[in-house]
Structure to design on (567 residues):
């Protein structure tokens, strides 16, 4: 089985985590509520990337572009137009998906590393536009103090909104992976040649995957606007894309919840380690190297393996 | 049912297939034999659309299918297995076969219903037929080589083919696995009425199950005929069977 913890233990863990997330605002101070919101939306960002990377075998090396594009689209519509913020929130993911489609059409004809390199170049182009166009995007200042609907302007409101949308998005992504489309996608990852021979239009499936991945990156970007009230060009810089890839690998890129775990690890690490050293990236580097050496399937991949070994006989997926 | 007319393909000047001719009637088992490098696999790649021929025509049921892409060929109900194992290594045995069925049924764009609702019975039936039903939940990369070769055939069956092409189906199998595989091929031909084209190095297998044999040497067809005709042919004996074989006709 790929992608989830099975059976009662897995279900129990899930229920405990969801309950914990629900009551979190009543127990912990505001700072942790903010941090958990960031973990949730970053986890959604990494999970959407992993749909292409881990389940589609597509080298999604510049995923941050779609995150930033969604965030900027929402922020610009709120600040520059008189439309309702809710329309802006819906527009963010759609803009991301359209950019994903355009970049996908251009780059999907290349495969593997060449695809990744072309995506990085095209993505950097989008970044330059955002970074340089002062009069429209605010350049490297970004946009601050984005006004939000009243219900979202409190930390708790933003938190529950993020929790709900992240949960919903993760559910939809999970359904997609378990659908025939998802099965075929994993087939393409494993063996594109054979997939073509059994009648699959490989490139068109990959393009659809890119659109789905960028749509949910846009959802994550829009959630960032809700949580942080700001956007800035670093959101679509390639270093963030590399962090996203690291999150996927760290958590386990052949598992569904691995990237979420990786995102939690990375965000927590950045928050706590950077409070006593500016070299937090060094710690991340060492940790990442260790994981690659000792847990090549990532943290969750390792746990799943252990878990499956114990129950292999009793697991029947009928 | 399948007719190949003077098919040719060169790779940088090397004529891998040069004027190959072949015809297969419905319900037959036809073997292609020839020394290593004779162009058997290239011929199969040309028929199934993996490679585009330089010259010549391929007709299937009277229809010109020359140069169609592989997924179009698959829709014409022509399936193949590979010489080198060519599976979906991270997926389970069940999923390997199920994908082929989903693809045939045009369900690959279904995004929201769970896969486990589709094609269960047909997948199980195929796995039952090939004898892999007990290993349905195994990850295919972890199967033995023999089982992987059988799974190759099972994936090909997922296309509900009328015409099957096997590229050295028993290569690398143990003697027991080989005899099981031969039984399977016979079963597919006799019980399911499938037309089969295969290539093989083991002459015992070839003469044991083929109705007719096509001999290829250096990319060209030397002869196509019944087992006896091929066995007695002078050119074949010289080129391939070592010469001096006794002929009983």
């Amino acid at each position: 089985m790929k992608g989830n913890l099975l059976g009662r233990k897995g279900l129990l863990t899930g229920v405990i985590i969801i309950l914990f997330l629900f009551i979190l605002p009543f127990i912990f101070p505001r700072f942790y509520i903010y941090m958990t919101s960031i973990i949730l939306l970053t986890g959604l960002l990494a999970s959407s990337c992993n749909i292409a990377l881990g389940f589609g075998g597509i080298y999604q090396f510049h995923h941050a572009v779609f995150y930033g594009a969604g965030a900027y689209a929402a922020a610009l519509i709120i600040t520059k137009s008189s439309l309702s913020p809710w329309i802006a929130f819906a527009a963010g993911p759609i803009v991301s998906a359209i950019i994903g489609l355009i970049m996908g059409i251009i780059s999907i004809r290349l495969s593997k590393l060449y695809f990744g390199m072309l995506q990085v170049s095209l993505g950097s182009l989008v970044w330059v536009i955002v970074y340089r166009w002062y009069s429209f995007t605010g350049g490297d200042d970004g946009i601050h103090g984005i006004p939000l609907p009243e219900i979202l302007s409190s930390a708790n409101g933003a938190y529950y909104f993020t929790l709900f949308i992240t949960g919903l998005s993760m559910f939809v992504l999970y359904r997609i992976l378990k659908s025939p489309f998802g099965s075929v996608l994993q087939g393409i990852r494993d063996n594109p040649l054979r997939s073509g021979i059994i009648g699959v239009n490989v490139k068109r499936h990959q393009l659809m995957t890119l659109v789905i991945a960028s749509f949910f990156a846009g959802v994550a970007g829009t959630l960032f606007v809700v949580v942080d009230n700001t956007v800035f060009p670093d959101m679509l810089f390639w270093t963030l894309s590399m962090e996203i890839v690291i999150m996927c690998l760290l958590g386990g890129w052949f598992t569904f919840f691995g990237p979420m775990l990786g995102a939690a690890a990375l965000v927590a690490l950045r928050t706590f380690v950077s409070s006593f050293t500016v070299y937090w990236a060094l710690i991340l580097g060492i940790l990442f190297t260790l994981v690659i050496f000792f847990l090549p399937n990532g943290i969750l991949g390792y746990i799943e393996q252990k878990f499956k070994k114990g129950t292999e006989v009793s697991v029947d997926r009928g | 049912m399948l007719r190949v007319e003077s098919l040719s393909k060169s790779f940088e000047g090397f004529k891998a297939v040069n004027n190959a001719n072949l015809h297969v009637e419905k319900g037959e088992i036809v073997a292609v034999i020839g020394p290593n490098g004779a162009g058997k696999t290239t011929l199969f790649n040309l028929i199934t659309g993996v490679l585009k021929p330089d010259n010549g025509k391929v007709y299937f049921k009277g229809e010109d299918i020359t140069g169609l892409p592989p997924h179009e060929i698959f829709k014409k109900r022509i399936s193949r297995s590979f010489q080198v194992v060519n599976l979906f290594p991270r997926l389970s045995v069940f999923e390997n076969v199920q994908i082929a069925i989903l693809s045939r049924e045009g369900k690959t764009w279904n995004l929201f219903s769970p896969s486990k609702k589709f094609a269960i019975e047909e997948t199980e039936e195929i796995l039952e037929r090939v004898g892999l039903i007990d290993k349905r939940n195994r990850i295919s990369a972890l199967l033995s080589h023999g089982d992987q070769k059988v799974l190759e055939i099972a994936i090909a069956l997922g296309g509900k083919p009328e015409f099957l092409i096997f590229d050295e189906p028993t290569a690398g199998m143990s003697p027991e696995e080989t005899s099981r595989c031969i039984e399977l091929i016979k079963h597919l031909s006799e019980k399911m009425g499938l037309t089969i084209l295969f290539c093989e190095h083991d002459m015992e297998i070839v003469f044991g199950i083929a109705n007719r044999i096509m001999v290829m040497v250096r990319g060209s067809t030397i002869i196509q005929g019944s087992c006896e005709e091929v066995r007695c042919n002078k050119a074949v004996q010289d080129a391939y069977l070592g010469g001096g074989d006794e002929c009983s006709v």
Q: What stands out?
A: Chain B has a mean pLDDT of 87. Chain B touches chain A through 39 residues (CB under 8 Å). Chain B is about 35% helix and 25% strand.
